[in-house]
Specification:
The chain is of the alpha/beta class. The protein folds into three domains: 128 residues, Methylthiotransferase, N-terminal domain (Rossmann fold); 229 residues, tm_1862 like domain (pyruvate-formate lyase- activating enzyme), CATH 3.80.30.20; 56 residues, OB fold (Dihydrolipoamide Acetyltransferase, E2P), CATH 2.40.50. It has a six-stranded parallel sheet, with helices on both faces. The protein has a five-stranded mixed beta barrel with strand order 15-16-17-19-18. The protein has a three-stranded parallel sheet with strand order 7-10-11, sandwiched between helices.
Length: 443
């Protein structure tokens, strides 16, 4: 006897960046339009969706391991449908390679056609298996559904793709050239989210700072932020990722004068050496980057600045690495996301000479992490004794009897309080910290 469609459950797993999480929400919502109900237990699922990432080889290997594990579930339940989508599938030649390796997968989709996932589900019902990966996007997708209405926080795409072509990055090759969404569509989506309980949005793009460059009228990211800032009922506005080469004075001034625009800027430097930055094709110098930091500090003194750093890029000398450490000491980031360089097939850096030995990359990474941990601790200890505005998100993962939330600067705060406070803004007096978390009491 076949299962009632209304009883069918879908489990969606997302790997990689916030854009992947947002795409996973879309896939989930498109599945619910076909009668599936979101669930958490894969053993009871009728449809499992894996939205993939291919930025680093380690992430890809982890995803391949998970896809392999699903074969056992498929053997136990032949009616189970498995779908794999996203950046890993979009890579040139990947579909043929992956489908041979994982014949138990029923649906394959790339990054450019996830908005048609409900159609692919229909085809899979009829044909058993379906694979569709577009070579390039056909249009900017508007009004793509967002899953989990009523979430306190939500991701909102403002653009797709990237035009920067950093030599280590596969993203432009799997997400296409940059395309900006219409401002009125973005505003409409955010207003709809607010009406269902959303209080914080994060605007997403591979490079939000170049938003609007493809319009035939004058309108940029700062203009969009001003409009979003005026939406009634929205408590906070964040954005990522911000490319240093396009961080204008106008944008910094807009953040400084905003009401709901959070004082947190994620500004990846990647390396502190001009020579390494040139080889990375980052299109800015160390001096220019530091001038942007200076401008932020002048206009937004309390701003929390975070970054991404890659160590062991091909040709990186000890002197180059020392320049990166010097930048970290000078800027005093509140947090840094640090990575060892790893080859990505299809990128220019993978073919570069002077690849750095693994043991040297590990040693440099540990030195960088040690320095940044000290910086992060010093940054948070300055907040002890101060009262901070916190958006309450829910129970703490490490201690369910306490609440957790974030400051405007994106600092994680743990404190005792009643669960009824979730979704509200409260003031918390900070009395302790470690390198990553603030601890306090309600004022």
């Amino acid at each position: 006897m076949s299962k009632n469609l209304q009883d069918k459950k879908v489990v969606t797993l997302a790997y990689g960046c916030q854009m992947s999480e947002r795409d996973a929400d879309t896939l989930t919502e498109l599945s619910t339009q076909k009668g599936y109900v979101p669930a958490d237990e894969m053993e009871k699922a009728d449809l499992i969706i894996i939205n993939t990432c291919c930025v680093r080889e380690s992430a890809e290997n982890k995803i391949l391991g998970k896809i392999g594990e699903l074969k056992k579930l498929k053997e136990k339940n032949p009616q189970l449908r498995i779908a794999v989508s996203g950046c890993m599938v979009q890579q040139p030649g990947a579909l043929e390679r992956l489908s041979k390796r994982a014949p138990h997968v029923d649906i394959w989709a790339g990054t450019h056609n996830i908005h048609e996932f409900h159609r692919l589900l229909d085809e899979a019902e009829q044909k058993g298996k379906v694979a569709e990966v577009w070579d390039k996007p056909k249009e900017v997708q508007e009004a793509v559904p967002l899953a989990k209405k009523g979430k306190l926080k939500a991701f909102v795409n403002i653009s797709y793709g990237c035009d920067n072509f950093c030599t280590y990055c596969i993203v432009p090759h799997v997400r296409g050239r940059e395309r900006s969404r219409k401002p009125e569509e973005i505003i409409s989506e955010i207003k709809a989210l607010v009406e269902t309980g959303c209080r914080e949005v994060t605007l997403l793009g591979q490079n939000v700072n170049s938003y609007g460059h493809d319009f035939d009228f004058e309108y940029d990211f700062a203009d969009l932020l001003k409009e979003v800032d005026e939406i009634h009922g929205l408590y906070r506005v964040r954005f990522t990722t911000s490319h240093p080469k396009d961080l204008s004075d106008k944008l910094i001034e807009t953040i400084a004068s905003g009401t709901h625009l959070c004082e947190h800027i994620h500004l990846p430097i990647q390396a502190g050496s001009d020579e390494v930055l040139r080889r990375m094709n980052r299109k800015y110098t160390r001096e220019y980057y530091l001038s942007r930091i200076k401008k932020i500090r002048e206009l937004i003194p309390e701003a929390s600045i975070t970054t991404d750093i890659i160590v062991g890029f091909p040709g990186e000398s000890e002197e180059d690495f020392q320049e990166t450490l010097q930048v970290v000491e000078e800027v005093r980031y509140s947090q840094a996301f640090t990575f060892m360089y790893s080859k990505r097939s299809g990128t220019p850096a993978a073919k570069m000479e002077d690849q750095i030995p693994l043991d040297m990359k590990k040693h440099r990474l540990q030195r960088l992490i040690s320095l940044q941990n000290d910086q992060s601790l010093a940054w948070r200890q300055k907040m002890i004794g101060h009262s901070m505005e916190v958006l309450v998100e829910g129970p703490s993962k490490s201690n369910p009897e306490r609440l957790t939330g974030r400051t405007r600067g994106n600092e994680l705060v743990v404190f005792p309080g009643d669960p009824s406070l979730v979704g509200t803004l409260v003031m918390v007096n900070i009395h302790d910290s470690n390198s990553w978390t603030l601890f306090g009491e309600l004022v």
